[in-house]
Design a protein that fits this description.
- The chain has helices at 3-7, 21-45, 49-52, 57-67, 90-102, 106-132, 135-146, 160-175, 179-190, 197-214, 221-241, 246-255, 263-273, 280-302, 306-320, 329-334, 337-345, 348-370, and strands at residues 75-76, 79-80, 258-259, 322-323.
- It has 18 helices and four strands.
- It has one domain.
- It is 69% helix and 2% strand.
Length: 377
Amino acid sequence: MSADTMTRPPTTTRWSRSPLAPGAAVYVAVRIITVVFIALDDLGTHRGLVQHLSRWDGKWFLLAANHGWPSHLPMVHGHVAANPIAFFPVFPLMMRALSDITGLSRAVAGLWISGVTGLVAVVAVGMLTRVVADDAAARRAAILFALAPGSFVFSMIYNEGLVITLSAIGLWALLQRRWWVAALVGAVATATSPTALVFVVVAAWSAGRAIAQRREWISLVAPFGSLVGFATWMGYLWAHTGTPRAWQLTERGGWHSYPSLMYPVHVLVKFVTNPLSPTMTGQILVAGTVASVAGLVVVIRQHPPTELVVYATAAVILYAASAPVGMRPRLVMLAFPLTMAAATRWSGRTYRVLVVSSALALALMTFETLCSWAVFP
């Protein structure tokens, strides 16, 4: 071996030098630990790894992927029963397509899509942070997001990874004034989950400002284009079931879900008046509501691009007012500018405390969700 070879620094790939690599590594490590943990738990339950990870909303996504959506609203005791109509089409159709192409079961396909899009979401949040801050903040944001208490859903058949990825790309497009890109990813997002309607609010605000400041009328394509996914799904359900309010009736009858601005107030008042009365789910809702409001204050005080402020504000209001779901960890995670602001605002000891606290909360949520029925995500 020559002296030149001995003194030459080791080569590294561009990705290994990326500030987002640590967050991706943490994400992969969490997924591996989760699978190992569930496999060990299965030694006693004998339910099977895939069945373990197909719980809660996963079974409804699987029903949609396997059998489609019912042409008539199922009724029980005069009310619409729970059925796949509550679950938007992009994710189940992706599961079906991947299964048909690869030969994987629909459940395994769903787990792969959830896991991969979760990883992409970590990278997307980090990249968006890099655009508005710097490499150090991007690194912290990616790690903190990978350890978010709600990130356990990336190990399950859930569509959060897809929604967050699309929303982060859409926000980047709005910041760059790439209106057609924002319209396209927004349309796919709103056909993936109603939670993505938050992006439509931001797109409308961004377009309004572009018109007021620069008479940039083409910007209107972003909010109207983003609505196409949601509107198309509502139109399909109307034609498919003959009921224009099929989705809303399913949400209300099947899951007792409805919008209420008083719901977060009810959650907090119930806790304050009797801290021991809420169930574990109630306590999680209180923690999520308080954390979200505190995070929103941090976002506003950080003075990021106003698109991020509007997104965070609209997300907190919409999700907190969605009874009886409220600010559960996965919905706090969907309001990802909160994580971005915390990672930008704090470093050093405070940031390490946030990371450790998030990791512990993630471990608790993973156990309670996957190994018991005490908490639904």
